[in-house]
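TICKET: design request
STATUS: open
ATTACHED STRUCTURE:
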């Protein structure tokens, strides 16, 4: 990833006034870096899952279709492929929207959920939610939800790939969708106050660093696992990114930067309970 983001330092031959030459050159280089990264990520192939060919429409009777959970399991770690007919999880997608910051670092857009929500209020999440009828694919779901939540115009986002799905604690199948925001200045955050209290961004690379990170051991379904907490401060505001959101961003950063984190992830081992079927949702 370092080679992708830093090696493309070839200047562009824009004819502009000298006072704007540096800005134009930096903009061009930034565009080249994102384009090279997009090309790299389009080659990424997530592990196959038993639901890749599942076109069955999933309905949702819950009023809140957001994606927040303490637990997130990469789908390849779940032994549900042994009997996929027993279990058809409902589908959701989150948008990992990447852009180049002023310092040349790769950043991701995050949201703080409204403190007025009855569940997971004030927690940090990626824009996203459950699939709805009419969504063409996971990218459609993720960008539609991002538009509804924070006012991000889908036309500004270049979808480049989908990562391996995660299963949430409530057995929701969450597909992380990576998209590139090439024109950051064109995005004017307009958070939906019913859902989002704040929109901010953080460096993606922090999720594969041991700085400002802590972890707690928890037990789920008889197995111990780690929940990771990342503390982040910007503009005098403090945020804690943890749970499913942190797990997804650890995986995304590992793929983008092409190196594993220096800490143990220790995801929970998924065991499908005997009474679970396609309509089951765990508490």
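STATUS: resolved
RESOLUTION: sequence designed for all positions
ATTACHED SEQUENCE:
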């Amino acid at each position: 990833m370092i080679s992708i983001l830093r090696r493309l330092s070839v200047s562009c031959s824009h004819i502009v006034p000298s006072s704007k030459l540096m800005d134009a050159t930096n903009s061009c280089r930034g565009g080249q870096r994102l384009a090279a990264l997009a090309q790299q990520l389009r080659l990424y192939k997530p592990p196959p899952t038993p639901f890749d060919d599942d076109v069955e429409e999933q309905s949702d009777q819950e009023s809140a279709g957001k994606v927040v959970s303490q637990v997130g399991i990469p789908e390849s770690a779940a032994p549900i492929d042994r009997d996929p007919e027993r279990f058809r999880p409902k589908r959701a997608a989150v948008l990992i929207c990447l852009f180049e910051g002023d310092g040349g670092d790769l950043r991701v857009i995050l949201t703080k959920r409204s403190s007025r929500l009855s569940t997971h209020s004030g927690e940090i999440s990626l824009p996203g939610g459950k699939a709805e009828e009419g969504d063409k694919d996971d990218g459609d779901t993720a960008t539609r939800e991002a538009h509804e939540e924070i006012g991000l115009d889908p036309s500004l986002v270049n979808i480049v790939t989908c990562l391996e799905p995660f299963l949430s604690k409530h057995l929701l199948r969450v597909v992380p969708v990576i998209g590139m925001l090439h024109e950051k200045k064109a995005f004017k955050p307009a958070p939906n106050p019913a859902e989002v209290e704040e929109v901010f961004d953080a460096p993606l690379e922090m999720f594969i660093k041991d700085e400002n990170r802590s972890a707690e051991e928890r037990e789920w379904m008889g197995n111990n696992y780690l929940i990771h907490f990342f503390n982040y401060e910007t503009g005098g505001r403090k945020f804690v990114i943890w749970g499913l959101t942190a797990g997804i961003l650890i995986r995304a950063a590992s793929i983008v930067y092409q190196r594993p984190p220096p800490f143990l992830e220790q995801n929970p081992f998924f065991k499908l309970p005997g009474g679970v079927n396609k309509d089951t949702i765990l508490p």
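CLOSING REMARK: The chain has a mean pLDDT of 78. The radius of gyration is 19 Å.
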